Amino acid sequence: MGYDAGKKVKGRKIHALVDTLGLPMRLVVHSAGLQDRDGAALVLDKIRRRFPWLELVWADGGYNARQVDQAVADVPGLRIEIVKRSDDMTGFVVLPRRWVVERTFSWFGRNRRLAKDFENLADTLLAFVTLASIQFALRRLARG
């Protein structure tokens, strides 16, 4: 199945940079028509200012591109490691570090407002994803 350049892609995509516990550090929402490799620059933009200690980012194969390498190169002291799926794997296999961000997206799905795409604006969706992220963090702190 080919991609028709004239066809408008509906929906939105959420890029999340999460810590090792799965708590979001940076969230970006944009049109689903933008590729993962192009969204990486949006996620990494200004990341050094917020998290000067960040050294390593794990990402899936969708971020294995020249655009991502350039976005990482623009952030001093940051490196990216692509978590690749082995060619001999069949079916569902949990990949190291990949499950952390997938769990975060699962948490978003448990939030009633985020279970379906109700929002018309990307900024509104970002606001509700941010509120859900704050709720995750507060629950984690309350458990202590």
What does this structure look like?
The chain is built from 5 helices and 4 strands, in the order ββααβαβαα. By secondary structure, the protein is an alpha+beta fold. Strands 1-2 form a two-stranded antiparallel ribbon. 12% of the residues are buried.
Features of the shown structure:
two-stranded parallel sheet; 144 residues; alpha+beta; two-stranded antiparallel sheet; disordered N terminus
Unreliable segments of 5+ consecutive residues: 1-5
Provide the succession of SSEs. EEHHEHEHH
Major β-sheet profile: 2 strands, antiparallel
| End-to-end C-alpha gap | 50 Å
Structural class: alpha+beta
Helix content: 25-40%
Which helices and strands, and how do they pair?
Elements: E1 12-18, E2 24-31, H1 36-44, H2 47-50, E3 56-59, H3 66-73, E4 79-82, H4 98-110, H5 122-143
Parallel strand pairs: 3-4
Antiparallel strand pairs: 1-2
